[in-house]
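Escalation from tier 1.

The customer reports that the assembly of two entities below gives different structure tokens on two consecutive runs. Tier 1 could not reproduce it. I'm attaching the input and our single run for tier 2 to review.
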Amino acid sequence: MNFTAFWHTLGPNTISGLVVGSIIALFALGYTLVYGVLRLINFAHSEVFMVGTFAAAAAWSAVGVTTNSVLPGFWGLAALIVLGLVAAVIASGGTALVVELVAYRPLRRRNAPPLAFLITAIGASLVISETFGVFTHHNQRGTARLVPVHDLLVFGDTHITVLDVLVVGLALVMMFALDRFVGRTKMGRGIRAVAQSPDNAALMGVNKDRIISLVFLLGGLMAGVAAVMYLLRVANAQYDAGFTLGIQAFTAAVLGGIGNLRGALVGGLVLGLCELYGGALFGTAWQNVVAFVVLVAVLMFRPTGILGEALGRARA
Amino acid sequence: MRQGLARVIGGASILGLLATGAAACNSSNNNNNNNAGANCGYEIAFFGALTGSAANLGINIEQGAELAVDQYNDANGANCITIKKFDSQGDPAVAPGVANQLVQDPKILAIIGPAFSGESEAADPIFNEAKIPTISPSATRPSLSTHGWSVFHRAVANDDFQGPAAANYIKTVLNATKVYVADDQSAYGAGLADIVKQKLGSLVVGSDKTEADGKQPNNDFSGLVNKIVASNADAFFYGGYYKNAGLIRGQLTAAGWKGVQVGGDGVNDPGFAQAAGNAAAAGSIVTCPCSSPTAAGGTFNADYQAKWSTAAGVYSDVAFDAANIILNGIKAGNTTIDKMQTYINGVNYTGVANTYKFTATGELDPSLVKVWSFKVQPDGSVAADQNIPLS
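Tier 1 run:
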């Protein structure tokens, strides 16, 4: 174990961990929402994210901004980021809805066993990912690094950049908005009702199918935002970009308590920090191992995750 | 029932007739193509990545080889020699299946490839079993020639030359005092990084390992980046391929690191700047046990540009030469894999990029080895920098 490296990189790793964790957390919401309502792991969610990255990249290149474009000033950049967000959110939300309509709803109509949902989920994921892979020759597509490198705050070795604040801030705003939406609005009450008891909700006049579509759409929207944040950081889209991130996001959802919206945030941030701290201690190649050891350790003592409660019971 | 059976038999026999007819047509075509002295109707295989995150490197090689075959066919009759493309995706897990397909084809006399070291480890045993001679224009892991694969030939120097040259460049040209070294744990990347580490000795202030292309969680290298920044290194060597190297370079720049990144021939591609962004990539150094393709002799560069509407990339020229070695062999009547193997073993051929002569283990003769450094330009292209002294 390399404690020297750990102490030397503690500050920067904490910042990186929070930034990575925010992206994971937004991504994890899609898993947690769908699981909370349907008791279903939507494996195709990683492709919902991937489609978002390509949509934002395509939107930017449509207005002439590619990897090495000269970037406009502040308002131009803000407009570009909003454009990317709109494109990614539409594409990701749309993909999530299509997956629900094509892959899950027909099975639900026929009362298929849970295993069938699992298989179609994996199938849908592979179909979307490989389709993009074939059309992009399994190759990368670079995008512009829109946010210039600029330090906002510096503590010793720890630099907090505009991008760091933007990513974490945007993630928190999105999660807060989602939490309010589910907790305070009429449609949100519908979601919680279906999560608690689909049959009773239906008896009370809640349209179950519409609520389920809404849940997929919300997850897709969050994934779309995560996709833009990912592009701002990594500036690279590829057909399999959602795969490793999807595993991380699913882990974060379980870590925080699957079905629990706030749990996804906690899980994402804890996972992001654990990976970077673990990478500093044992080497970057051990990041995944450390993350999963932490997951198993947490689940041994809190089998339902850190915050462990279901969506239906989040607020009565 | 009986009627049904008769129909089935009738259908089958018609299909059979059609098939023999088609086969007859094929053989007559072959005969037509059999121009005197050209030995037509045979195939050369390309084996390497045509898709996947490191595909640019494979495509350079395939296009170089295909150009040579086209020129041969222009001189000796259309479709005389066919180049068969086998896409390994550069993935050691995919390579064996594709290699098994390749060895089913009896017309293939030799293979250009495998392009990368990892897939060579996986596929070369299959080619060795099938006794099909290979010439790799790019796989540089030293141990590839130590497995006793008689079919193995390498048209470039291996990393026992490239690694020390890269270390030499970091020490004497960059004058670096603190070097950070990392690799992607691949057969090629880890091997090269280990040699560089060993040669740099006490200059190495830290080392790390990442996942391979596309496997790093989140494509996020901030753990590695934070370590490099904290180590105050003025140079960073990455053993791996261009995509990861480019992503790391981009993230290093975003973290404010000002040092120089150095990579091996796997990073020697415009895809590096594509992943990093030109501004971040500019000034990075890549080495290659080859000279610049723009220095290739004859009309190679003009021909390549005319055929592919793009400039020749790294190893395009070596692949062109490797294909010509095989084509010369075919022309000289070496139309079985055994004869081709003997021919390549004894070849002494001067092509557009270099002169080729192989040792008993299939390595390029040490007297013909050269290692060049290349610098990434502000527009993202890679330009020749200098011939690195080997010691």
